Amino acid sequence: MAETGQKITEIVVALGERSYPIRIGDGILSGLGHALARLDSEKKLGLDRKIALISNPTVYALYGDTVLSSLEEAGFGVTVINIPDGEEYKNLLWVEFIYGELLKARLERGSCLVALGGGVVGDITGFAASTYMRGIRFVQVPTTLLAQVDSSVGGKTGVNHALGKNMIGAFWQPSMVWIDTSTLKTLPPAQFAAGMAEVIKYGVIRDKAFFECLEKDKDRIMGLDPGSLAHIIGRSCGLKAEVVSLDEREAGLRAILNYGHTVGHALETLTKYKKYLHGEAVAIGMCIEAELAEKKGLLKPGIHERIKTLVSSYGLPAEIPAGLIGEEEMFKAMLLDKKVKGGRIRMALPVDIGEARIETISDFRPPADQSADQSA
Ligand SMILES: NC(=O)c1ccc[n+]([C@@H]2O[C@H](COP(=O)([O-])OP(=O)(O)OC[C@H]3O[C@@H](n4cnc5c(N)ncnc54)[C@H](O)[C@@H]3O)[C@@H](O)[C@H]2O)c1
Q1: Ligand 1 probe mutation, 29, 62, 144, 254, most atoms within 8 A of CB
Q2: Residues 6+ away with beta carbon under 8 Å from 112
């Protein structure tokens, strides 16, 4: 239980001495300061009590005061840094701005950054933490569903470059992830649905019972029932934590988390990041990749339709509108992905609900078409 009295679910990301807790609860934002102070003394984090709270004006207006007073009440001296709201500000220019504010406030090696916001704030704060004074501690307080189930967990931090998304970055694990599910009440519905794409992904690649629960509990989840939210966020973080613990630097298994993302990224690139939210592109990607797995004989017939039905039921797009992008064009865009080696695409494909594996593919066609081509 936290000082706030609310029930808290804890999941540990097991990475030896870099292990850290993910704590999830409804209305726990005001318990952050004391929880961090306690973690500091229990795990001997060596915090010097100086904190920079990094956010954006949208999120800060909603939750900034609560987090600021919680940290101050627990004895931390806090500098607030707001960066503009938007993916276009996740770049080195704004990292430089953050460094400047940290230096002016005299944050040192024992100081800590707190990221309050969605994936953009989390990624840039984590990257600043990984490099400021050769690396200082940071805490994630994610406020979008996508950030709560995905970007705040696993230690990938980074920023965009004019020539590519997330091209500059570092693996840097937070000291704690503090998730207040009640912050989702103010999130626009499309952003909530986008986060659900990643939740569905975990069910498809790793947990059949969880997938079935998403089918059954849709109304409660969409109604933001606190118990259901704690369950889906906890299970998603647990599944991601398990994969990350087994393969922190994506040498093998971690690549299954990219299910839906190879097609999804290509779709985002081809539509210049304007038509779809990331989660929407991943939703379409999961449906197309499942169809591909079926065509290649890896997935039993009918399962791709079941995935499509679940994706659509959460208000997500399940296919590319007719005429928008052809298969050839899509395949060419996929070849530009940073995971491509020697012209062959390595992608995570489902082999059943709850199981995925990495396959190398060289086009979108079923095996029969390819052998016909080779004999011609
Ligand atoms: N590091 C990783 O492993 C990882 C994984 C997936 C995605 N990402 C990154 O995450 C980013 C996308 O994150 P996102 O989807 O959270 O987008 P985002 O951070 O842009 O947030 C979406 C919008 O919601 C607003 N918002 C946030 N919380 C709110 C709340 N509680 N109420 C009202 N509005 C709120 C934000 O201000 C923003 O306008 C991308 O940059 C992507 O590259 C990183």
Answers
A1: 144
A2: 36, 45, 47, 50, 51, 52, 136, 137, 138, 139, 175
